[in-house]
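WARN no homologs supplied; continuing
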Amino acid sequence: MKTEITERIKSPTPKFFKRIRTIGLTLGAVGGALLTAPITLPATVVTIAGYLATAGIVASAISTVAKEDK
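OK structure emitted
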């Protein structure tokens, strides 16, 4: 099982999923920056930042293991 995951990660990623990975990384970075901001933010902004970070991490992880069928 572990080798299957390793092979999937190393295999070529389709162009669409590369875009999704980039968007996910961006969302995760924005969410993380808002969560670690040195100023006090409203609770709504902190909640949205948490959702952004989570969605970004999940999108990046899923798009990384997508592979092209030959």
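The longest helix spans residues 43-64.
OK
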